[in-house]
Design a protein that fits this description.
- The protein has one domain: Rossmann fold.
- It has a seven-stranded parallel β-sheet, with helices on both faces.
- Helix 2 packs parallel to helix 3.
- With 258 residues, the protein is of the alpha/beta class.
């Protein structure tokens, strides 16, 4: 029996580190072969690939592409097509960037900084969905999962274009669920405050204090981890087969009780 042929396949964008890496590892352990997209950090993307193979993936690939550029996206999808011999069961749009400008100083932000966030986060999600859909549509249970954020649903400390871009992804998720159903299910995950580098950069020297306070105010008494996001993506792809157009909040219940 061809082991690879029995495994489902996935493309995860922005998968070199952090949430993307955790999603790749979770999918590999859950029976998927995975294409790892990155834009800058090849060595870290190779490490993600190694972890995927260690977790059970048989066919893997590392693909450099800037998802905000249509030519890059077309080339990436062509590589996925060759890697998985025309099969793609799951697309995870995780590639994203932010700004260094806090929301209270939004009026100091340059147009270029604002546009860069939307180009990657929103246009990138659109472009990858646009071109990967040709591989997803023939599959019997194809799925798209987009990485949003809790700040796409309620205010937070993230820069204005980041929050706005995540709100746009939530809206896009709902629209695509209608446009691509019943062939392809489309959902999103919205992590809350995540332990690790991303929130360290956002909160700066107040990271430890503010994260501890947030954990204490959360019903499950801790903050989200990247592994929680990976588990949610795998569950949406493999278990919640009658769920589409939804945004799953991963924050231990904080946003619903505070």
């Amino acid at each position: 029996m061809d082991v690879a042929a029995e495994r489902k396949t996935a493309l995860v964008t922005g998968a070199a580190t952090g949430i993307g890496r955790a999603i790749v590892v979770s999918l590999a352990a859950g029976g998927y072969d995975v294409a790892v997209n990155y834009s800058r950090s090849e060595s870290e993307a190779r490490e993600t690939e190694r972890l995927a193979r260690e977790s059970g993936a048989v066919r893997t690939g590392v693909i450099k592409a800037d998802v905000s550029q249509e030519s890059d996206v077309i080339a990436m999808v062509d590589q996925v097509d060759r890697l998985f011999e025309g099969r793609l069961d799951l697309l995870v749009n995780n590639a994203g960037v932010t700004s260094d400008v806090p929301p209270s100083k939004f009026d100091t932000m340059t147009i270029e900084d604002f546009d860069r966030v939307f180009a990657v986060n929103v246009r990138g999600t659109f472009l990858v969905c646009k071109h990967a859909s040709r591989l997803l549509k023939p599959m019997p249970s194809a799925t798209i999962v987009n990485t949003a954020s809790i700040v796409g649903l309620r205010p937070g400390p993230q820069p204005l274009p980041y929050s706005a871009s995540k709100a746009a992804i939530i809206s896009m998720t709902r629209t695509l669920a209608g446009a691509l159903g019943p062939t392809i299910r489309v959902n999103a995950v919205a992590p809350g405050w995540l332990e690790g580098d991303w929130m360290e950069r956002t909160l700066g020297e107040n990271y430890e204090k503010l994260m501890a306070r947030r954990a204490g105010q959360t019903p499950l008494k801790r903050n989200a981890r990247v592994e929680d996001v990976g588990a949610a993506v795998l569950t949406l792809a493999t278990q919640l087969l009658f769920t589409s157009g939804q945004t799953v909040v991963i924050d231990g219940g904080y946003s619903f009780v505070s």
